Description:
- The protein is 23% helix and 24% strand.
- By secondary structure, the chain is of the alpha/beta class.
- The chain has a single domain (3-228), classed as Rossmann fold.
- Helix 1 crosses helix 5 (218-228).
- The radius of gyration is 16 Å and the shape is globular.
- The site of glutamine has 12 residues, from strand 7.
Amino acid sequence: MKSAIILFPGTNREQDMRAALRQSSGVDPYLIFHRETEVPEVDLIVIPGGFAHGDYLRCGAMAARSPVMRDVVAKAKRGVPVLGVCNGFQVLTETGLLPGALMRNADLKFVCRNVDLRVESSQSLFTSGLSEGQVMNVPVAHHDGNYFADEATLDRLEGEGRVAFRYCAPDGAVDGRGNPNGSARNIAGIFNETKNVLGMMPHPEDSVEPIQGGTDGRGLFDGIVRALS
Ligand SMILES: NC(=O)CC[C@H](N)C(=O)O
């Protein structure tokens, strides 16, 4: 599986993402700078976490208008799989590829800790290696992770099976206890209409080696590689 990771000034999770993709696919991803106007033909494009352009204006707002994003958006519309993690999720909402917005965390604090996530759908190329109802323990590290969309959009996301992950308690209960940022309906990750775009706030790439404190994120990458190879 060939992949490309997009880099902006201020991106900081590209090496973690690179290691996770290399571990699961055996292939080193391309690293593509924001000034490029074309992304090579790959099976998967990833927008990793960080602080693109210092989070100025709004997280992801300037990155979404980078030259490289024109080609990312065009390729996503053609069906190329695109994964955005954390800052990458913010960039994808700013491009309009995903609905809604990531607002300031409800308690206005940067949150950096492990959270529990319930897998809501295994019906996608991204989540086919995971089981519905499975609980994954992975880190979050953000100040703008509070997912917001209007009620009609939230109903539509739920009705179309486009909620990928929700924050939950360790026993899998989705009752708000595990929600670190105030996200609407405990949403931690969503798909676009055609499910070739996934945005998620938690960092599965930081949970693929025992030295990172756990390996719960690995199933996601192994599943993506199986789906795209
Ligand atoms: N780890 C990240 O990607 C952080 C995203 C963004 N800078 C925020 O703090 O919300």
